[in-house]
Amino acid sequence: MKRIFLSAIIGGLALSSCTSDDTPNPEVNTIEIPENYTFQRDNSSTVDYNGQTTRLQMSAELLEKFTDFDNASEDLLLNMFSNENSPFEDISLNESSKSVKSKIAASTQYFSANTVESSEIKNDFASYISDQFTTVKDNKDVLAEAGIAGQIAQDASVRYVNEKGLELNQAFAKGLIGGLLADQILNNYLSQLVLDEADNRVNNDAKLLEEGELYTTMEHKWDEAYGYLYGDPSIPTANPNSILNESDDRLLFSYLGQVDADEDFTGLAEGTFEAFKTGRAAIVAGDYQMRDEQIAIIRKNLSTVIAVRAVHYLQGGKSSLAEDNKGAAFHELSEGFGFIYSLRFTNNPDSDMPYISKEKVNVFKEQLLEGNGFWDVSPETLDSISNDIATAFGFSVADAAE
After folding, report:
1. What angle do CA 164, 382, 261 make, to 5 degrees?
2. In this predicted model, what pLDDT tens digit does every residue of 189-235 receive, in sequence order?
3. Quick one: which of 98, 198, 315, 369 is 20 to 30 A from 402 by CA?
4. Where are the alpha helices (DSSP H) in 180-245?
5. What is the pTM of this model?
6. What ranges in 95-160 are assigned the alpha helix state H?
7. Which residues pair with 145 in a beta bridge?
């Protein structure tokens, strides 16, 4: 069943503002939507998401070291995670005050009053690093088996798994897509708690700029959300979708492209990009109803990416298990586990809550890792979890499995 994920604004580059409870700036009659994500004031760009690019670069360097047992260590990766003791090869990253850890499970909407869970989630990511460089590294030359960490072959490749068959680097990377990127985009910068904080609406209508900058606070918050998706330096700033599946990004942008390439989800990437452009243009015009409509599109689309890939990898793992190819199966199940972890950070625009509750996500994780984990997991369990996810998001398992 083919789906088209398009923003409602694709009909033209200029839209008439409509009246509603969120009345637009009365001096503005149209929303000018640029062809690319390009916004200017006084002939200079008002778009700035350097902080997001920095965290994407930190994440990329950290992930590159995750299986480098000869040159990396637990201390190095933990330092990279928190940006302490100048751990990065890129000197500019060491000079930054930012870190990956500080923004894990740190959204205003989900975690500002939920610091206990936020701390637990940060500890999960740190534990993936610690276990990789203790348990897994100690057994890197041992053939893995049920209950014993070690290496396992996937065709010509060697994978390293813990005693449950879980690749910790995959759990970390795919969990990061939700715990860092989706949480910051959907539940922080695009939340009304952040966009409309204090006098942001009044200041935006008055075009009151941040000190020394060319943007309003609301414009900047929107750009920061944009940056977590499109901010990798390899992605063209003007039209990111021109290189879907060809950038160096291996996080959310990459999987947006992969899901979009499935004909069942065609248009998802374009619809997301159009929504980001339109929402930013709506902020410039002071049309907050239009802005919020675009937020709903972005939340649905990016949450769908996470869900589709969770089901895709569970079903791929099931197929590989049926062929007794445990290396391939454990690799796909590890990716699926990470995307399931990321379901906690999705946002259903109809409820402003995750599509699947954290309690149910925890049940899914427990089912996958029960006993000897992937060594024992049954096809029935993989199908049950897949069906639950697909049902919650309104697609079929078959749609995602292709």
Report:
1. 105
2. 999 999 999 999 999 999 999 999 999 999 999 999 999 999 999 99
3. 369
4. 183-184, 192-195, 200-205, 217-230
5. 0.94
6. 108-111, 115-131, 137-138
7. 148
